[in-house]
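Sequence, please.
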């Protein structure tokens, strides 16, 4: 799959997507990278540490977060994108649910759409299809504001698979080719601790959907709930879950701690070329 100027062979390799949150309220790095200069330093650092992509987002989607108006989201991400795209050798993705933000981001050089709502905005599929960029379709039940209320699944893997299968078909019906689609089970999005652990354990079952699997557990609250709040424990849990996901079929890992994840992947997994 071509992303920007780079060819990603998701059948053989595991790639790292470094997280850059241009938000005032993200869980672990809120407020810091709204400043384009700081964002550039962080992006260059992650590139140097081995990131294959940088994921820029301007709306926190943590449980309970308020939605962000489109103008505000644009004000957060565009200066950052404009600053970093030309300075990086690796491609940049835009993490957004809004077609207007995606469109402006593609014009500013973003080369991948990471949509946690899997094309719910009625204009998103057309915008993505027209731009020709690959897309990540993530599973999320409900909205960030309310998604942790009343969570219950009868068979979580089938339910996520069915939704993702339906979203893949929808994307294809709107002109996005299958070769440009990645899927993501959406760790922490409308899921309890036991649901996240079940997804991790049975991640390989999503291979049936025949799209590369993206996975994001980095610093998420289920890790804190299982291992405790100590930053060392959170780092350890983030790296361990990333490694387990890679062994079970994930090809793209969305992480904050690029250096530590890369170090462990290089030494501990059996996948080639990592
Ligand atoms: N998780 C978050 C945001 N975007 N995209 C994909 N594909 N997969 C994920 O699991 C995912 C995502 C939430 O994490 P984070 O960016 O750390 O926090 P916040 O939502 O507060 O910005």
């Amino acid at each position: 799959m071509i992303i920007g100027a780079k060819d990603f062979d998701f059948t053989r390799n595991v790639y790292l997507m470094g997280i850059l949150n241009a938000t005032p309220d993200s869980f672990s790095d809120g407020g810091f990278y709204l400043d384009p200069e700081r964002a550039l330093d962080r992006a260059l650092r992650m590139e140097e540490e081995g990131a294959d992509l940088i994921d820029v987002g301007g709306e926190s989607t943590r449980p309970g977060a308020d939605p962000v108006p489109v103008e505000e989201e644009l004000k957060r991400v565009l200066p950052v994108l404009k600053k970093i795209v030309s300075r990086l050798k690796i491609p940049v993705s835009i993490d957004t649910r809004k077609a207007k933000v995606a469109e402006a981001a593609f014009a500013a050089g973003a080369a991948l759409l990471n949509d946690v709502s899997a094309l719910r905005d009625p204009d998103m599929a057309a915008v993505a299809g027209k731009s020709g960029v690959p897309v990540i379709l993530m599973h999320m039940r409900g909205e960030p504001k309310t998604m942790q209320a009343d969570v219950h699944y009868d068979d979580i893997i089938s339910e996520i698979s069915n939704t993702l299968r339906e979203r893949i078909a929808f994307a294809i019906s709107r002109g996005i080719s299958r070769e440009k689609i990645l899927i993501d089970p959406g760790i922490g999005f409308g899921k309890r601790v036991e649901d996240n652990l079940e997804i991790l354990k049975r991640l390989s079952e999503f291979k049936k959907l025949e799209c590369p699997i993206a996975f994001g557990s980095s610093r998420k609250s289920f890790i804190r709930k299982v291992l405790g709040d100590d930053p060392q424990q959170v780092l350890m849990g983030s790296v361990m879950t990333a490694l387990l996901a890679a062994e079970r079929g994930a090809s793209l890992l969305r992480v904050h701690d690029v250096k530590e994840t890369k170090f462990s992947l290089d030494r501990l997994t059996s996948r080639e070329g990592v």
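Strands lie at 2-3, 6-7, 15-21, 53-57, 92-95, 112-115, 135-138, 181-184, 213-215, 250-255.
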